[in-house]
Task: structure prediction
Amino acid sequence: MKLFCPIVLAVALIVTLAARAENVPQWRGADRSGIVPDKGLAAAWPEGGPKKLWSLKVGIGFATPVAADGKIYFFNLDGGNDVLEAVDAAKGTSLWKQSYPRGYNDSYKGTRASPVIDGNRIYTYGGNSQLVAWNLADGKQAWMVDVFKETGGHNKQWGMASNPLIDGDRIFVQSGEGGNAAICVDKNTGKVLWKSQPTGGGYASPAMATVGGAKQLILFAHKHVLAVAPDTGKLLWELNEPWETQYDVNAALPVIVDNKMFITNAYSNAKCGLYELTDDGPKKLWGAKEITGRFQAPIHDNGYLYGNSEGLLKCVDIKTGKTTWTERNLLGIGGSMVRFGDKMILLSERGKLTLGQATPEKFTKISQMDSAVDGKQVWSSPLVYEGKLVVKGEDEAICYDISGK
Result:
């Protein structure tokens, strides 16, 4: 009996840790890489696409759903309010729904930034700068911070889209124009800890890098790229290179690979670049127009970038910046993707689903579904969770079975 109890506890702990490892607590997965676990997913789909499990009306917006412990969380606009809803992942039934007024109702109305789950709370960032902590159990608000009020900034042309980044007890988001570029808030209390220099924020999500053993918070901001100390907000460096583009849209997440940073934008002056991050600031390794992405960051896997470059699916060698292959007619400018093993699931901005094998040498289409969800701007990324694929269209979420069972 004395031996049995420790064994039972050890097995229970292993099962619990395995379950937690499958959670998708934020956009692009637990590590925001866009790579999902290669476990139990079908290598091919039936003709006509995978089996539909359920569908649900969930409001308007571009936020990607997240999932944990058998629940999926949607953050969207409904009736002028920003709404956070918890849904049973197996049944597609609503468990609770909470909201606040004054959601983003202007051009391309709806939510932009995706929720982040951390501990017993879930955090959202509305298009009108409401940074909110909600209790996972029932969705009740724990605190709200009006970021514009705190920073003295105002909204960008198409609303706040900076997915919150959590590191320890701190939560970071970019602000709008005319004020501080970013803000740091205590995730437990909602207390503002610091505001970065007043250079104007952007659409992109913050990224965290470690350089020489110290962390740097990377901000792809309004017209520039900078790094600040995550504990104080003090400016560490600002890239001495223009990153100004049409409409001031720097929106793609900086991709951090070891001590290197890849950034990309589109529209006029579109370009991309890879930089080595040093104690003295970034050093440019190469720059070109190989991937010019509007707001979907590429996925890095084993030395190669797989990205949406103005509607073209490209594979680029991260060391050299050279394109190894290009595929057309799969994504549209806002189409997104996730990767598992050497496979990729592509979701076009018109709702077409494609499963393909993507290696550094070539892309091979395996299965395709012409209309997985309705919408002309399907810009939410696909969610893969517990053998299910959830895609969000104009105002509906649809769940498909992509398990290998």
Notes: The CA atoms of residues 312 and 329 lie 7 Å apart. The chain has two helices and 32 strands.
